[in-house]
């Protein structure tokens, strides 16, 4: 009983203090009838710290940012490689390299022994290769950093590509191929990329049984020898370290790694225009239809980048955004609906709108998405919409830079793709300066319903009436081809 009384007393005191505080602050916190009437003070200035940048004699770039909150040290690296560099006949090779680099261990430490070593130190080392970059990371306790760093360097420099681990990774890749048509969302995204970028573009390719089976250990070794050189690596380190001693350890681990060939300019093909037609994937085990439509988007370097950030917020950035409000809430056509003009770092993203809807409302759903994209021009964003979107982006910006690890990750990314070091630091200023007219102009230029490729995934029976409205519907064959 006495504990309950004490709790009540404490709660009562807190409530009284809050009431007094609000009373003293006066009318600025007065009640309002609508959330739109809430007034917020202007954002205060805050300074984003910059990492120390060091370039080793062999070309490796190191970015260092201290964080002494916890006795931990973390490294995150980007390597200039990626699956978009694969030959067509070896699609899937980059992913296997990224997997087996870590699972297969090194020339001096087998994969299973590496697992045991890291587990004993509560440390991690991971590697992967995605579409546009390879990644490698490590984390460990401060006291273990010198030892774990040596193992991390060994993984990057001397992977063994153990044949047994390669066989396991290939079996896993094969299993993934066998399941690639299970998830309708995966089908939608995969096939839409083919429509926009082109079937032959590296940005739209997917591994097959034939390409994965053809990959050998020699292929992994050759890939590593081609792309893993210090002058192709940007390495970021953050955590509880002293810069001088950490830099010495990094130089000891990587400084004698010979410089590789000069990195050539990148040239990855994709089609400039997409077919403005309707495409259909038959999937009869679904109870809904999935719809996606759009065309090429832009790169982040585009002069309209900041206005397009606002366009996307107005279109799909919140529960009050146009797509959610008009398509979901007012028309009841979808629970899941979103879209916008997408960005990539060094090639165009996808400008797209997508939704899930009942099969019987497939036609209405297509019409609604097209109508909302057209209304962005005919009923353009208002000053109020633009200001609300800008406020949302500015107020959420702090959460993207609220830790040294997040900040350092951005610097590493910008260094990798050749953006100015302070590019993300300028985000706040760029958003603040966006005008309503710039937003409207960006919509007119970068969201073009007349150029949409429209893709529907769903059961034939439920979507037949919607598809019958179009003279020419191209069927997309997603049959998984067996290796010859």
Brief characterization of the structure:
With 484 residues, the chain is an alpha/beta fold. It is 43% helix and 17% strand.
Question: What secondary-structure arrangement, pairings included, does this model have?
Answer:
Layout: H1 2-25, E1 52-55, E2 61-66, E3 72-79, H2 93-103, H3 111-120, E4 124-129, E5 134-141, H4 145-157, H5 163-178, H6 184-197, H7 209-213, H8 217-227, E6 233-239, H9 243-254, E7 278-282, E8 288-296, E9 298-299, H10 305-316, H11 322-330, E10 337-341, E11 343-344, E12 350-358, H12 362-378, H13 383-397, H14 404-417, H15 427-432, H16 436-446, E13 453-458, H17 460-467, E14 473-475
Parallel strand pairs: 2-6, 7-13, 7-14, 9-11
Antiparallel strand pairs: 1-2, 3-5, 3-6, 4-5, 8-12, 8-13, 10-12
Question: How are the strands of the largest sheet arranged?
Answer: 1-2-6-3-5-4
Q: Look at the structure and give the mean pLDDT.
A: 91
**How helix-rich are the residues, as a percent range?**
40-55%
**Gross geometry:** globular
- Uncertain spans: 1-29
Q: How many strands, which pairing sense, and closed or not: the largest β-sheet?
A: 6 strands, mixed
**Overall number of domains:** 2
Q: In the CATH hierarchy, what is the architecture of the largest domain at level 2?
A: 2-Layer Sandwich
Q: Could you say which structural class the secondary elements and strand pairing correspond to?
A: alpha/beta
């Amino acid at each position: 009983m006495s504990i309950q009384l004490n709790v009540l007393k404490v709660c009562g005191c807190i409530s009284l203090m809050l009431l007094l505080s609000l009373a003293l602050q006066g009318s600025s916190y007065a009640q309002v009838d609508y959330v739109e009437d809430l007034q917020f003070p202007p954002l205060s200035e805050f300074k984003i710290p910059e990492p120390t940048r060091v370039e080793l004699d062999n070309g490796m770039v190191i970015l260092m940012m201290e964080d002494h909150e916890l006795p931990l040290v973390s490294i995150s690296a980007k390597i200039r490689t990626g699956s978009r560099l694969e030959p067509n006949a070896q699609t899937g090779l980059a992913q296997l390299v990224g997997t087996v680099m870590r699972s297969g261990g090194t020339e001096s430490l087998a994969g299973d022994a590496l697992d045991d070593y890291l587990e004993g130190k509560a440390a991690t080392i991971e590697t992967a290769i995605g579409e546009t970059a390879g990644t490698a990371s490590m984390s460990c306790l401060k006291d273990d950093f010198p030892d774990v760093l040596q193992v991390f360097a060994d993984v990057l420099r001397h992977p063994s590509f153990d044949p047994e681990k390669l066989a396991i990774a290939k079996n896993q890749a094969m299993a993934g191929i066998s399941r690639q048509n299970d998830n309708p969302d995966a089908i939608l995204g995969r096939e839409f990329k083919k429509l926009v970028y082109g079937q032959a573009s590296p940005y739209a390719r997917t591994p097959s049984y034939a390409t994965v089976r053809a990959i050998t250990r020699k292929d992994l070794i050759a890939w590593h020898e081609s792309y893993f050189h210090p002058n192709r690596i940007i390495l970021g380190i953050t955590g509880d370290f002293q810069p001088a001693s950490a830099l010495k350890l990094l130089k000891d681990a990587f400084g004698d790694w010979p410089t590789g060939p000069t990195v050539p300019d990148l040239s990855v093909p994709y089609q400039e225009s997409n077919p403005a037609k309707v495409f259909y994937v038959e999937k009869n085990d679904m109870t809904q239809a999935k719809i996606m439509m759009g065309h090429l988007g832009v790169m982040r370097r585009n002069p309209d980048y900041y206005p397009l950030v606002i366009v996307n917020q107005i279109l799909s950035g919140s529960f009050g955004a146009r797509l959610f409000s008009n398509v979901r809430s007012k028309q009841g056509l979808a629970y899941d609906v979103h879209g916008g003009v997408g960005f990539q770092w060094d090639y165009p993203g996808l400008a797209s709108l997508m939704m899930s809807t009942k099969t019987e409302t497939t036609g209405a759903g297509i019409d609604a998405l097209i109508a909302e994209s057209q209304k962005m021009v005919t009923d353009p964003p208002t000053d109020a919409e633009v200001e609300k979107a800008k406020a949302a982006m500015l107020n959420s910006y702090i959460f993207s830079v609220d830790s040294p690890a997040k900040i350092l990750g951005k610097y590493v990314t910008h260094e990798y793709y050749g953006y100015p070091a302070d590019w993300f630091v300028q985000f706040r200023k760029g958003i603040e300066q966006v005008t309503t007219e710039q937003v409207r102009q960006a919509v007119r230029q970068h969201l073009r319903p007349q150029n949409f490729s429209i893709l529907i995934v769903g059961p034939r029976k439920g979507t037949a009436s919607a598809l019958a409205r179009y003279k020419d519907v191209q069927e997309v064959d997603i049959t998984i081809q067996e290796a010859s």
